[in-house]
Amino acid sequence: GLPSKEEELLSPPLSSPPQPEPEEPPATFPRGPPQPPSPHPSPPEIPPKPLRLPPEFDDSDYDEVPEEGPGAPAGLMTKKEELPVSHIPRAVRVASLLSEGEELSEDDDQGDEDEDDHAYEGIPNGGWHTSSLSSSLPSSLLIPELPPHPMDGHPVGPAPITPVIKAGWLDKNPPQGSYIYQKRWVRLDADHLRYFDSNKDAYSKRFIPVACISRVAAIGDQKFEVITNNRTFAFRAESDAERKEWMQALQQAVAEQGARARLSSTYPLGVRGSELPDRAGSLELRGFKNKLYVAVVGDKVQLYKNLEEYHLGIGITFIDMSVGNVKEADRRSFDLTTPYRIFSFSAESELEKEQWLGAMQGAIAEALSTSEVAERIWAVAPNRFCADCGAAQPDWASINLCIVICKRCAGEHRGLGAGVSKVRSLKMDRKVWTETLIELFLQLGNGAGNRFWAANVPPSEALQPNSSPGARRHHLEAKYREGKYRRYHPLFGNQEELDKALCAAVTTTDLAETQALLGCGAGVNCFSGDPEAPTPLALAEQAGQILQMEFLRNNRTTEVPRLDSVKPLEKHYSVVLPTVSHSGFLYKTASAGKLLQDRRAREEFSRRWCVLSDGVLSYYENERAVTPNGEIRASEIVCLAVPPPDTHGFEHTFEVYTEGERLYLFGLESAELAREWVKCIAKAFIPLPAEDLLARDF
User: Fold this and answer.
1) Cα–Cα distance between 561 and 570 in angstroms, integer?
2) Residue 670: which of 650, 697, 647, 654 has the closest Cα?
3) What pLDDT was estimated at residue 692?
4) Count of H helices and E strands in the chain?
5) What is the distance between the alpha carbons of residues 629 and 639, in angstroms, rounded to a whole number?
6) 189: closest CA among 213, 152, 168, 164?
7) How far apart are CA 318 and CA 203, in angstroms?
8) Which of 238, 255, 262, 618 is such that its CA lies 20 to 30 A from the CA of 91?
9) DSSP category for residue 147
10) How far is the C-alpha of 348 from the C-alpha of 141, rounded, in Å?
């Protein structure tokens, strides 16, 4: 079998083959006196500062024709390695995607040390090359030594996420009719066909989702085409037998992908049916001339040349965030660091940078989570799709409603408050998922949940996986806070009879009946009439109904749905309050019961993930926490003040005063981010006498 990811990472790296020394040093270097060779070279104590070159985007595998280089006569195909280096077009002479367009020319050794315009920084792996050509190259061009590939001994990048079906060298025909074949290391797994400049590269030059491949066809001696709806990729194998193996492997992968798509036919065969990105947009990536289109999808960050190619699904590379880490670099920039490269991104603004950081940190959490609980709960078919919008593979849940939901709906459920929905992650909140709770979700789950909560949803009001946050919020308010679509119990409206029926139901295995009774107003803590078992929970315990006990415990504080449950703020306004939502990190001190007279030092602030949604400002220990440390309701805010810069340990601060005579102090270094928070909080708590301010921008 294939070695595990840990075994691959622990395998000793292969030593690089010796490279010939250049015949003469570059002309731009001053020639010094000849030095005798050292019989025992030793690594320097401090590695030299890497040279940083301004690379260019390599379009050799995209749509443009190479800019220079001789064309071969018609009918003649020439292998790349058969040409001298000087005759290879500039766009072809590159190290990999990771050094796009960096020419391995004589002048490359003469870089400006102050330049910081490299595409990806290489991470040293501890090896020193004292007598090879590699030692004269900047570190951003060095190819890391990686563990051997389990299939055929070739070193590769990070351990594959899915098992590799086939891997090997193929010649690839560049687009637009170039006659020069380029040798590429090609890897096929169940989800992607990817090709690389080298078998040592960690990240691909191109990835083609198997779901996008429409057919594979032979086109001549040793050549074959991989055809998608919009693009055709031509490859050449070493022999007809090798070509046959590649074609069979590709055709089988396409057939199996199609079978999986038909099995979950809720979504059409395509790239992104259920994988809507957590964040997508254009970012600058250091070393590329043009912005790239970047998408954070699940536990991966995907890079595309532009928006058009994102929609086609054909990308440059993707980064598995299980080996990633993100951190701020400067005002608009941040670094995504992996063991293989550093990706340096720049956003349009500080606010956008914070949003990208949050999305990528979420991808890291997703990558490091465990799917064991999710897989068990997904074993029941209705639980494989979000109970609210139908998105596939939902990995969040409401443990009191006993439904499985997607990440987007989970955010809106959290906004409903714990009195309506208690949100937990299937993958990250491991301690929550006891065997009893898992069994409860297998017995009830989305099937029973929607037979009760969604019994009367009009098609015009149903959610879709791509519904907007506003549409989700409106639908979920109606569904769970108001109970608008629920199936009414025959005893609805008769409190005494509802309570009696609940006391009877909890002594049986009929969980759906208990769910319906509680959802229609039965009192979870009503008096049973039996002093020895005075509550429904005590009755369930007496009867040995463990699942009933779990369900009752999770609903001890759940509010009864009411059609007239309009939020207090909404009752006082003659205009509709704006929907204000915002999130990000803030630095916060402990709340105080009096005005701040003294300067608060930076050490007194704690970093908290803050979410403003549905008139509530909640603050969490971190962005992965599901239970807030505390919250401030906009309806309770009486004053929002902004002290002068540098009043406290952070340059920019703002103070929130509430009716309960509590003062909350928040801080940030960024004026732009602080201003955005103040604007959003101000819009969320506009008092009645200042209703006309709703039409203004703060």
Assistant:
1) 18
2) 650
3) 58
4) 15, 26
5) 22
6) 164
7) 7
8) 238
9) P
10) 28
Write b or e for each residue in 412-450: b if 16 or more Cβ atoms lie within 10 A of its Cβ, otherwise e: bbbbbebebbbbbbbbbbeeebeeebeebbebbbbebbb
Tokens of 423: 């949100």
What is the DSSP secondary structure assignment for residue 123, as one 8-state letter?
Answer: P
Question: Domain boundaries in the chain?
Answer: 279-368, 372-475, 495-554, 568-695
Residue 533 DSSP symbol: S
Domain covering 372-475 in this structure, CATH number: 1.10.220.150
Calpha distance 29→394 (Å, rounded): 59
- Tokens 């992104």 -> residue: 272
* Mean of all residue pLDDT scores within the chain: 75
C-alpha–C-alpha distance, residues 203 and 243, integer Å:
24
pLDDT at residue number 450: 96
Q: So what's the pLDDT on residue 693? A: 60
Contact between 615 and 633 (Cβ < 8 Å): yes
495-554: CATH architecture: Alpha Horseshoe (1.25)
Distance CA 185, CA 195 (A): 5
DSSP annotation of 287: T
Say what the pLDDT of residue 140 is.
30
Report the candidate in 676, 681, 619 with the shortest Cα–Cα distance to residue 652.
676
pLDDT of amino acid 549:
96
Fold equal for 279-368 and 372-475: no
pLDDT on residue 226: 93
3-state secondary structure string across 145-190: CCCECCCCCCECCCCCCCCEEEEEEEEEECCCCCCEEEEEEEEEEC
- CA distances to 86, 109, 128, 451, 597 from 136, in Å: 19, 7, 11, 69, 61
Per CATH, which fold does 279-368 belong to? Answer: PH-domain like (2.30.29)
**Whether 333 contacts 348, CB under 8 Å:** no
In the chain, which stretches have pLDDT less than 50?
1-160, 265-274, 566-578, 698
Is the alpha carbon torsion for 518, 521, 522, 524 positive or negative?
Answer: positive
pLDDT tens for each residue of 477-535 = 999 999 999 999 999 999 999 999 999 999 999 999 999 999 999 999 999 999 999 99
Residues in the chain: 698
Task: Give the fold, CATH level 3, of 568-695.
Answer: PH-domain like (2.30.29)
**pLDDT confidence of residue 113:** 31
Q: Is 617 helix (H, G, I), strand (E, B) or coil?
A: strand
Predicted local distance difference test score (pLDDT) of residue 253: 92
